[in-house]
Amino acid sequence: MIATLALLGYIVLGGLYIAGERSRIDDKVSALAELSRHDKALALAEAAIGGALLEVNESSNAAQGQPAAPADLRLYMESCSKLFAALEPFDPGYTRLQRAIARSYQMVEAAPVRANWIDLREALARASSELEIRRARLGEQRDSLTTAYQRSHDAVTIETLLLSIVGLASFGSLAAWFFARLARDIGRLEVHARQIVQGARGVALEVTRDDELGHLMQAVNRMSVDLDERERRIELDGQRRSHQDKMLAVGALAAGIAHEVNNPLAVIVGTAEAMRSAALERRDAAAAAEAQAIATQAHRAGQAARRLADAASPQPAERDWFDLAALVARAVQWMGYDRRYRGCAFDVHVESGLPAVHSSAQVVQQVLMQLMSMACDALAARGSAQATISITLARSRESVEIVIAVPVHLDFTHDAALRSIMLARASLAMASAQLAFGQADDGSSHLKLALPMDCDNPDR
Asked: Range of 331's domain?
């Protein structure tokens, strides 16, 4: 719209300027027409004066005594009077010449003596000379106006051509720049849309325009953010369901194993106790010791089965109060069952009097196991044998914090690690918890989970 209005304004201004120049040309044409009429009337008057002068010369010939005014001269005088009246609108000075001729002619009519004839002849001669001079001036003026008209006509033609060329060049360049920029931005938008389809997220397309295409770019950026958020939520839901299904399956398997194992173990323990009692009655110390060892190992196997079933029991997904220390202990126990992390040791420090926390135990357990797996993977990649990961549970002013200290450097710039951290943060945000990470100067890394003690009263 701005370009169209500018083009219209340029056309209007250019048209007004050309119209002004053409009006000046029209003035010159009108002046030439006026000069032409003036010259025509002057030529007629000059012819009439010439005829009258010839007639007066013949009538005032010295051979004639007292000549009388002929009738033809009267006609010439009347014609001169009418022609001078026609010249009066062009120049009032013609009236003076006509009056001088009329006065001399009246004297001739009153007294047609030779002296009056000579005076009339001189008046006509003076008028003829004056008209000749005036006609010469008119010729000069006509030549000057004709030259000025030609120059103005050529100038208007050149100016019209220049204005057309400048307008075409300016608005053509503006249109070329506009469409080139439009094509470039459309190309950028197309590339960005393809990247979004291919899964690239997190980088917004720079918007440098405020028109319909700029609004479309902003809409594509918002769509990218919405898609990223939706994919993140879908991935979070998938991870949560996968963790929940895995824990349910393992819990059911552990409960079944514990049930199937506890019954034979109870029989073994009972038989061992009977064998020990019989050995004591026989005073067979070796047999009693062997029976006691069988009973002790059976008790140990039963406790391991119960711990496995307890550790595999699913945690509630809803927010509720739970024992954070027990949850951390179960997570550490689970990590010990993984063969990949047999070389990793966990040193857990729990502050005395640690209060319960209000959050989702399932989410906290899932994120905690992800962070511990990340730390163990980093230790395994570095080949750190028998490395110890320190886990500290302490109370701050408004929350309970879990600090995981890893003795190696964690690469948080890696795409997979960064994605895991972002997903963990998003999961904890829905559980009213927070996650932070950092690196120390000695090359170690720290991961910190902050869990609320009371989500309804943060100041408590």
From this structure: 319-460
